[in-house]
Amino acid sequence: MDTLYVLSQLVNGLKLGSVYAMVAIGYSIVYGILRLINFAHGDIMTVAVYTILSLVTIFGLPLWMSIGASVVMAVVVGLIAERTAYRPLRAAGEETTLVSSLAVSIFLQNLMMMIFSPQRKAFHLPENLTFLHNFNGIRLSTMNIITFIAVIVILVILTFVIKRTRVGMAMRACSDNMDASRLMGININHVVVIAFIIGSSLAALSGLMLAGEYKTIDPMMGFVPGLKAFCAAVLGGIGSLGGAVLGGFVLGVAEMLFAGLMPTEITPYRDAFVFVVLILVLMVRPNGILGSREGGRS
Amino acid sequence: MLEVTDLRVKYDTIRVIHGVSLNVREGELVALIGANGAGKSTILKTLSGLLKPESGEILFNGQPIGGLACHKIVQQGIVQVPEGRQIFSKMTIKENLRLGAFLEVSRKRWEQNLERVFTLFPILKERYHQVAGTMSGGEQQMLAIGRALLSNPRLLLLDEPSMGLSPLMTEQVFDVLRTLKQEGITMLLVEQNAYDALEISDRTYILETGTITLEGDSRRLINDPGVKQAYLGGV
Ligand SMILES: Nc1ncnc2c1ncn2[C@@H]1O[C@H](COP(=O)(O)OP(=O)(O)OP(=O)(O)O)[C@@H](O)[C@H]1O
Ligand SMILES: [Mg+2]
Q1: Angle value at C-alpha B149, between B144 and B155, nearest 5 degrees
Q2: In this complex, do B69 and A184 lie within 8 Å of one another by their Cβ atoms?
Q3: Per-residue confidence (pLDDT) for residue A120, from 0 to 100
Q4: Where are the domains of chain A?
Q5: 3-state SS record for chain A
Q6: B86 and A179: CB-CB below 8 Å?
Q7: Is B4 helix (H, G, I), strand (E, B) or coil?
Q8: Under an 8 A CB cutoff, do A183 and B80 touch?
């Protein structure tokens, strides 16, 4: 096994990791405020991807416009889910909304199947995005580079918003103590809506990146990456955005190294491996890599 | 200022407040005392909008506020220091106080209100950048009161501010309440500590399992044999 191979697997890991990271940020933002594990997050990616595909292939819209529309669509779907499936159950507790989010997930998957058929469809980004740059034998597409930079930029912007702005302070307050936040005069429904807007927009962007990487899409495509991204968020320390990004990269790299370096008989178990990594890390650090000692829950 | 008429509140199916009427006039300090589980916190939470009344009327300066969203009620100047302090434990003292002044109305008066809070609680100035969860229980209570004062209260609701505090600390908290009273802040004080509450307040309501059983001038109640027997540990 030569170093170039290992190195290129490492880079593949970072590629995959940046997609996980993007999804994990969205998970984390919503989880941080509502303690809601939103299983439908991954399926919102799928909705966004199908939106792009339909607008480009059926209506002939330019890609950038379709991407914009897919973000809007993802936000609309996210907000409808929040309003109809999560908000009415908020008082019932975390377990209830968790189950409810599974229901939304299954509903969206089936809706996609009804509208677009369960068949896989090809998803091709334009050449200028898929063009492969060669760095001493390590090949990266323009899209990979954009994804990586986008993750870092989004992390920096969101960290700034959360640490320094009034909205961010309200978000942290809600995450710390919901009832006390209400007593401060914070309209918590606004805060939750903002979290879902951010989360769903990021889901749309990550869907694009995922589809660009796989080159095919299907109605179930979002679910497993969504689960893995949730693992990434937990691994990094759920609620912490830096943790979500770190967790995404760690998981992506671990998965690609496993897939690339292990004997071919066991590489099909890469999904299982991801969850094993999660369990091992949590045994050592129950609150994730960057999670606080006292725990992310209040 | 505050007029509550025939208030009923229930959790799911169990009703815990059975038609309570009470009022607080401008500048008054009114105490609400009663045993564990009597429903004191439930009443305050309903006044703040954390819980919705089942029926009854809540008027604040003549306007009905029963059932309004919490943030709308805070906006009108009803501010609560909740039971068990409920500070933002992962945030600093500064951020906690800033959250007290979250709304536009109180943000405008941040500087002058902060000055006043620092005078009342010098410890908050000292620990300005400390994470709130690492403070002692007494310090956290001061933070909770300080935070409420930064919200520019017209009516301050206090839910057992002496809970879990040493006698010395309790004394300090009551001193602060006396100061606030002199400044003319209207307060509704919930207490288990019946003697202190009767002593500091103008009027007192006694709540038993969701019903007001006795009300009146605190001076009078403190000498009432029945009250002495039930709430002040005998004669
Ligand atoms: N979330 C809830 N769900 C169901 N019942 C509740 C809930 N919260 C309080 N109760 C019940 O309502 C009654 C009144 O509770 P409340 O907290 O208002 O009492 P309290 O007078 O504040 O008591 P304490 O002095 O112990 O704080 C109690 O019987 C309590 O068990
Ligand atoms: Mg209580």
Answers
A1: 105
A2: no
A3: 94
A4: 23-221
A5: CCHHHHHHHHHHHHHHHHHHHHHHHHHHHHHHHHCCCCCCHHHHHHHHHHHHHHHHHCCCCCHHHHHHHHHHHHHHHHHHHHHHHHHHHHHHCHHHHHHHHHHHHHHHHHHHHHHHCCCCEECCCCHHHHCEEEECCEEEEHHHHHHHHHHHHHHHHHHHHHHHCHHHHHHHHHHHCHHHHHHCCCCHHHHHHHHHHHHHHHHHHHHHHHHHHHCEECCCCCHHHHHHHHHHHHHHCCCCHHHHHHHHHHHHHHHHHHHHHCCCCCHHHHHHHHHHHHHHHHHHCCCCCCCCCCCCCC
A6: yes
A7: strand
A8: yes
Asked whether the beta carbons of A172 and B91 are under 8 A apart, the reply is yes
Q: Name the DSSP class of B81.
A: E
Nearest Cα of chain B lies from the Cα of A35 at a distance, in angstroms, of: 16
Confidence category of residue A295, pLDDT binned at 50, 70, 90: very low
The alpha carbon of B11 and the centre of ligand 2 are apart by a number of angstroms equal to 15
3-state secondary structure B139-186: HHHHHHHHHHHCCCCCEEEEECCCCCCCHHHHHHHHHHHHHHHHCCCE
**CA dist., res. A25 & res. A238, Å (int):** 9
Domain assignments of chain B as residue spans, ordered by start: 1-77+155-161+185-235, 84-153
Which A residues in the span 113-172 are in contact with B, Cβ-Cβ below 8 Å? Answer: 166, 169-170, 172
ipTM above 0.90, yes or no: yes
DSSP lists the bridge partners of residue B80 as B157
The amino acid at A169: M
Task: Provide the token pair at A202.
Answer: 């990021």
Q: What are residue B146's phi and psi, to 5 degrees?
A: -60, -45
Q: Which residues of B touch A172 (CB under 8 A)?
A: 88, 90-91, 95
Contacts of B48 in chain A (CB under 8 A): 182-183
CATH architecture of the domain covering B1-77+155-161+185-235: 3-Layer(aba) Sandwich (3.40)
Q: Which residues fall within 8 angstroms of residue A296, CB to CB, at 6 or more apart?
A: A32, A237, A238, A239, A240, A287, A288
CB neighbour class for A58 (10 Å; exposed up to 12, middle 13-18, buried from 19): exposed
List pLDDT tens digits, range A170-181.
999 999 999 999
Element (DSSP H or E) covering residue B31: strand B29-33
- Condensed to tens digits (0 to 9), the pLDDT of residues A133-144 reads 888 888 888 999
Taking CA atoms, A8 is separated from A3, A45, A98, A214, B73, in Å, by 8, 27, 38, 18, 59
What's the confidence (pLDDT) of residue A297? 41
